[in-house]
Design a protein that fits this description.
With 215 residues, the chain is α/β, with parallel strands linked by helices. The protein folds into 2 domains: 2-35 and 137-213, Alpha/Beta hydrolase fold, catalytic domain (Rossmann fold, 3-Layer(aba) Sandwich); 38-136, no CATH class. Helices cover 52% and strands 10% of the residues. It has a 4-stranded parallel sheet, sandwiched between helices. Helix 5 crosses helix 8 (117-132). The longest helix has 18 residues, at 84-101. It comes from SAR86 cluster bacterium. GO terms for molecular function: aminopeptidase activity. Keywords: Aminopeptidase, Hydrolase, Protease. This is Proline iminopeptidase.
Length: 215
């Protein structure tokens, strides 16, 4: 079957395909994320904060000033704590940070959906748990190293990446494509991270339509 995944889903898609290469007919990946420390640091410690300082300020609010040198760890501490009100506020702040940075332009409706308490709690706690453990991968280069890519070279694949993706910067997709030249890298020149960016949506539909012709 065709495996389709974006962002964290691209991580899972690559891990699945490399584990069960004979079960995957094609891959459509968006917003490449491979759970490496430099990728997590970019979004949760420095980097994206330079582009979205107003949203970053809100992301910092739940964390004491003296704990901000390791924000993922500070959030993890709150998420594992007994204060439910504090946990909810932190989860909403964590989720809104991602919702605020997903698109090339600010989308109030997206931020609103990310701030829903039930969604935010599930989203933030699961993400933080996996990120703190680097996805339980054997090592941070597991998904991109040549021995892993060799397992999936035979699988037709398209990588759709927004040029201005602030959550999963284009550098990661570029590095993956350099190791995996059999895959087609498509950089959407005026798009951010979200699958609902017009260019991104167009390329995702085109990719799945193209692969469907092989069925």
């Amino acid at each position: 079957w065709l495996v389709f995944g974006g962002s964290w889903g691209s991580t899972l898609s690559l891990a699945y395909a490399q584990t069960y290469p004979d079960s995957v007919s094609e891959l459509v990946l968006r917003g490449i994320f491979m759970l490496r420390k430099k990728e997590l640091d970019w979004f949760y410690q420095y980097g994206a904060s330079k582009i979205f300082p107003e949203a970053w300020e809100k992301f910092l609010e739940p964390i004491p000033v003296d704990e901000r040198n390791s924000l993922m760890s500070a959030y993890h501490k709150i998420f594992l704590g007994d204060d439910e009100n504090k946990r909810l506020k932190a989860a909403i702040a964590w989720s809104i940070w991602e919702g605020s940075t997903s698109s090339i332009s600010y989308k109030p409706e997206m931020v609103s959906s990310f701030s829903d308490p039930k969604f935010a709690l599930a989203f933030a706690l699961i993400e933080n748990h996996y990120f703190m453990n680097l996805g339980f991968l054997d090592n941070e280069d597991q998904l991109i190293k040549s021995s892993s890519i060799d397992k999936i070279r035979h699988i037709p694949a398209k990588i759709i990446q927004g040029r201005y993706d602030m959550i999963c910067p284009v550098e990661t997709a570029w590095e993956l494509s350099k190791n995996w030249q059999e895959a087609e890298l498509i950089i959407a020149p005026s798009s951010g991270h979200s699958a609902f960016e017009k260019e991104i949506t167009h390329h995702l539909i085109s990719a799945t339509n193209e692969f469907s012709e092989n069925v």
